Automatic annotation (TrEMBL):
The gene is rplN. Coiled coil: none annotated. Keywords: Ribonucleoprotein, Ribosomal protein, RNA-binding, rRNA-binding. This is Large ribosomal subunit protein uL14. InterPro entries: Ribosomal_uL14, Ribosomal_uL14_bac-type, Ribosomal_uL14_CS, Ribosomal_uL14_sf. The keyword Ribosomal protein applies. GO terms for biological process: translation.
Length: 123
């Protein structure tokens, strides 16, 4: 569960180290984002030689959340951190070329097949 001003770690190699959520996309007065949702975030820390720079406003897909999420089969999925992948807003493809750590199956179900194929593990 990610909301306004939530700090996200990065699960890709786009050059950012930390993101801060500034808007949850998808409706009027929507407050929370879960796995597979798109958020608008600002780059809080970045590598000096990365693709993205400090204070850049980006779109990101949530790939891991600490808050557990119930699936249709009755099981729950939970991760150790809140993580996101920076995407291109027009195509939905990741701006980095690698994805680190596991991602949830809900990301692929939401149509981000490129992120799922780059990930090491899909849970």
């Amino acid at each position: 569960m990610v909301q306004l001003r939530s700090i996200l770690t990065l699960a890709d190699n786009s050059g950012a180290k930390r993101l801060k959520t500034i808007h949850v996309t998808g409706g009027w007065k929507r407050t929370y984002a879960y796995v597979g949702d798109v958020v608008t975030a600002v780059v809080d820390q970045a590598d000096p030689h990365g693709v993205v720079k400090d204070s850049e406003i980006v779109k990101a897909v949530i790939v891991r959340t600490r808050k557990e999420r119930r699936r249709k089969d009755g099981s729950y999925i939970r991760f150790d951190d809140n993580a996101a992948v920076i995407i291109d807003p027009k195509t939905g493809d990741p701006r980095g070329s690698r994805i680190f750590g596991p991602i949830a199956r809900e990301v692929k179900d939401r149509g981000f097949n490129k992120i799922a194929s780059l990930a090491t593990e899909v849970l």
